[in-house]
Amino acid sequence: MNDRVVAAFDFDGTITTSDSFRAFMLDAAGNAGFVLAALRCLPWLAGIAPGWADRGRTKARFLYAALGPVRREALEAAAQRFVDTRLPGLLRPEMLARIREHQALGHEVVLVSASPSVYLRKWAPSVGIGTVLASELEWRDGVYTGRLAGRNCWGPEKVARLRAWWGERAPATLYAYGDSRGDREMAQLANHAWIRGESGLPPLVATGGFGAPA
Which GO molecular function entries does the Swiss-Prot or TrEMBL record give (predicted)? Predict the structure, then answer.
């Protein structure tokens, strides 16, 4: 019998109160560096909402505009500082409690986020999350290239990442937690979905039994 239960959590706006990438870039680049990068990338930033600018490429371009060809060890150090000092103030206590509830029932909790994995992978173990599916930065000889490695983990890509992760062991029950348009496809895949502001948190079960998600 397949009794695997997976709880997939978006990060920004779901576990946090605001956009963590913006907070990370402010922390890593400083106010002046952040503003200069925003000005350089303004045409692409403005193009995200109407849909003519790619979210992932714009995010990668902004990071490069702010930090340039930063070495991996330097960005890793900035990520650790952010996780230790600034990120805790952005976390929602009620969502951390929800993660613990899933874990107490033996559910597998996975983080699925469009934000860069460089700081998410440093934070996730602190709350017992062992799997992070997120946007990856591209490195060449230990230096950031200004591009993403692979697709931006947003919208349909979240479903693709989840399917690739569980492979032939699809869960009997999938919970999905999100807050925006980028989480819709993941919510549609789930047996129990929650989008912030639309409904109350779903009841939890200890085992599966709904059949593998399509």
Answer: L-phosphoserine phosphatase activity; magnesium ion binding
